[in-house]
Request: fold
Amino acid sequence: MKNVGKFIKMRSFIKNRQGFTLIEIMAVLVIMGVMASVAVSKINDISGTAELRALDTGIAELNAREMLYWTNAKFSPSGWNSDDDVLNYVDYNTNVGPEYSWTVAPNANGGTLSFESRSIALTRTISTNTAAARWAPT
Reply:
């Protein structure tokens, strides 16, 4: 009976305590750590995907410029003569955006376009009498 009295006293002491146990606090910290690691990996994926989309947008801009100059050459009084008619007039360096740069300068065969920390090697098909040149990833 003596032990029963101690047990009842201890139980009432534990019942009246306020706060969290060490196990509860550790469980919360582990859960928060897992959530933080998932969030960080998702943020890294989002920024990498955004850079790839920006490169796709830069390629689309280059193709639009090629098409514009090719169309102008086709409808000019002298007409389209060669790929040089387009290549010499397309401005590959301005107004694409300040974050874009060429790590390998653009030429008739291609180049390497960079956006912030990502780069992509591009090939350029030569324009013909029936189609404008196209930029595409290698």
About this structure: The longest helix spans residues 22-75. The CA atoms of residues 49 and 66 lie 26 Å apart. The beta strands are 100-107, 110-115, 118-125, 134-137.
